[in-house]
Design brief:
Layout lengths: L1 E3 L6 H12 L1 E5 L19 E4 L10 E4 L2 E4 L12 H17 L3 E6 L2 H8 L11 H8 L3 H11 L1 H6 L5 H14 L22 E6 L1 H18 L1 H10 L4 H7 L1 H5 L1 H4 L5 H24 L5 E5 L12 H18 L1
Parallel strand pairs: 1-6, 1-7, 2-5, 2-6, 7-8
Antiparallel strand pairs: 3-4, 4-5
Helix pairs in contact: 2-3, 4-7, 5-7, 8-13
The chain binds one RNA strand through α2, α3, α7, α11 and α13.
Amino acid sequence: MVVLGPTASGKSALAVRLAKLFNGEVISADSRQVYRGVDLGSDKVPHDRCQVSGFRFQEKDGCFYEGVRHHLIDVVSPKKTFTVTQYKKLAEKAIRDIIKRGKIPIIAGGTGLYIDTLINDWKLPRVKPNLKLREELEKKSAEELFLELKKLDPKRAVGIDRHNKRRLVRAIEIVMQTGKPVPYLSLIRANKRIVGREFLKIGIKVAPEELKKRIKKRTLKRLREGVIQEMEGLKKSGVSQKRLNDISLYYRWVGPFLDGEMNKLETLETIAVKIGQYAKRQMTWFKRDKSINWISRGSQADPIKNKDTLRALTVFNGARRLVEKFLR
RNA sequence: GCGCCGGUCGGAUAGCGGCUAUUCCAGGAGACUGUAAAUCUCCCGCCCAAUGGGCAUCGUUGGUUCGAGUCCAACCCGGCGCA
């Protein structure tokens, strides 16, 4: 099962609910919750007992929240960069393990790229990030990069966004390392290796105004719980401010407040706005996927109890059938 | 009451008398091939027979001028100073 939706839509709660209902375990699909110590900063579920092995990018037991095991949380230090490919590898492993134990894997998260890469088994080019090369290329203008790519890999240059330096750099990085053009990705392919069966995708949809309200409320909560202190702690442990800014919108937008440029209210509002914009980008990604079963959430806290959503019933009947198939 | 400064898009801001009124934020739509809470694109006064075209608009009213957001006058509103 896959539970997705914008931030603050209630994915985590639903995932736990489903896990209890169907004897499942949760696999987080969140690019920020993988970092140790970034708890409030990534709106991580309050987890106790996180068992992390000594290996980088390896986890043993996962984390527990309300007695449900969660995977792909706290798997790496925030000092390290973590990427989709690493995510895919670890998540695949977790899924296999869960199934082996006769349980249901429930993928829950808001990072659309991670979810799609995992469940469609996208074969991304096996070229590791080359930080030095990237730093060099970053110095050039988008136009220069585009011309360079055009020379190295004319085919890739055709469809690429010529203003997007990050993509241009990556494309150049691939050709330079493989000497071959960037392979064309066949987009829709079921992941036979992991499961070889269908995924039930459940999306939580929240009315824009309602979502904004929820985000603001949660932002206030995080500030009160001490995101700032959490950030300062990470800084003391050696994570650079630049890195922290990149990891969490909370960390980034608390800066002007600490510098005395913003008061508390302005800070709260700014962060809520930035997270709201992020939520919209998430929805832009999800909207393309027509196979998602959307359930809309009203103001009720628990979508399962929301008898208003006939849709939900259909979806959950589907879920039940899927579970039965798994158990057979 | 007097003096000074100012009034330009939802907010902030630029705008030597001339060509398409600038930029930032907010808002909307979208892209996404190992950084994805990232990165990038387009729209954002009104209307239409919409790869284009029409009509507005810079507090208000008048004036100067071939031509005014820009100059002048009066008035309205806001800020500061003096009473």
